[in-house]
Amino acid sequence: MPAPGELTFAAPRGAKPPRHLADLSAADRREAVAELGEKPFRANQLSRHYFGRLSADPAEWTDIPAASRDRLAEALLPDLMSVVRHVSCDGDTTRKTLWKLFDGTLVESVLMRYPDRVTMCISSQAGCGMNCPFCATGQAGLTRNLSTAEIVEQIAAGMRDLRAGALGGPAEAPESTPGGPTRLNNVVFMGMGEPLANYNRVLAAIRRLTDPAPDGFGLSQRGITVSTVGLVPAMHRLADEGLSVRLALSLHAPDDELRDTLVPVNTRWKVSEVLDAAWTYAEKSNRRVSIEYALIKDINDQAWRADLLGRKLKNHRVHVNLIPLNPTPGSKWTASRPEDEREFVRRLEAHGVPVTVRDTRGQEIDGACGQLAAAG
Fold it and tell me: Does 326 show up as a binding residue in the annotation?
């Protein structure tokens, strides 16, 4: 991968990302290797280096003949992205990365270390087509879907950086630390884009993240969260996949009148339909659904809306994440007053609904929820 700031050739916009090992199933990898004139078992060796050892450097593949390494790397491990810059905050425990993809498209991801875990927030699209007015990504519009490998490579890069000591790394977190200093615990599809609008590639990426070595990174499905604004057919489709990943529904309003404005896709699938799809997913996956709710001053933080939300959610397998609105350039909206936030929490708890106010990690580097805009 090129060093930060290094100039790289950009393919024309509209070009298809080059084929990468992470785009392929285990069977497809063996076929691709055979097409190169190599023995099919080389696919397992190559997968073990990429997914198990996090190595994309042919010089490190000592179990593969030297004459085969460059050919395999060129055909199946092309450079997909380069670092434009890293910016950090929160005492260097949060780092946002701006990536330039092979065609010059820009996307962002955020790596966060907590005392007991490491979380990475990744992008599934460049931009977003959902047009939510309080979200910087949504206001930027959609550029294109990311390939499976472009999604996966964000994770691979984060893992490599953690191993090398990013965010404090091994020096501050001994091997006995839960999750280990070089291992991600959680991956959240909450970066740029609507994951379920790039369904096939996101699903394939989840397989690569969770398949055991050598086919994938071997992360727990329970450590994966997929967010959606409420694409109901895709939510039902995901419920039928037999996964145990967590579904996070970006609701932001309990009533159709307001949600039509805050989450424009609500004009297609109403609150009742979206919640019904969420309960179906909860039942089939045996996982609680997370309800994401950005608290916006005098817009959606009224006590009566908290009561309405509580009535709709009570007695369901659910947890509410309240998110103090993160500021975005030019926005007329801001976070709720502390007293209104406290009352919103109290009303939800009175209905027996579990609720947490989310930590606003990354706000000062525009790396928090709703702030990713991939500005060059």
Answer: yes
* 259-278 core/surface letters (b: 16 or more CB in 10 A; e: else): bbbbbbbbeebbbeebbebb
CA–CA gap between residue 81 and residue 161 (Å, rounded):
15
Q: Give the C-alpha separation, 24 to 68, whole Å.
A: 19
Using the 8-state DSSP alphabet, how is residue 296 labeled? B
CA atoms of 220 and 245, how far apart (whole Å): 9
Give me the domains of the chain, ranges plus CATH numbers: 21-76 (1.10.150.530), 81-365 (3.20.20.70)
**Phi and psi angles of residue 264, each rounded to the nearest 5 degrees, phi first:** -55, -25
Residues 6+ apart with CB under 8 A from 301: 295, 336, 337, 340, 341, 344
Give CB contacts under 8 A, 24+ apart, made by 339-344. 340/295, 340/297, 340/301, 340/302, 340/303, 341/295, 341/301, 343/303, 343/306, 344/295, 344/301, 344/303, 344/306
Annotation marks residue 153 as catalytic = no
Q: Say if residue 20 carries a ligand binding annotation.
A: no
Is 231 among the annotated ligand-binding positions? no
104 has a pLDDT exceeding 70:
yes
Of the residues 121, 150, 153, 369, only one is catalytic, namely: 369
| CB contact at 8 A, 323 and 371 | no
Closest CA relative to residue 166, chosen from 222, 217, 118: 118
| Residue 194 marked in a binding site | yes
How much is the pTM?
A: 0.89
334 in helix, strand or coil?
A: coil
**Active site annotation includes 108:** yes
Six-digit token pair at 281?
A: 């997913």
In tens, the pLDDT along 224-280 reads 999 999 999 999 999 999 999 999 999 999 999 999 999 999 999 999 999 999 999
- Among residues 108, 150, 153, 292, the one annotated as catalytic is 108
Mean pLDDT along residues 112-137: 90
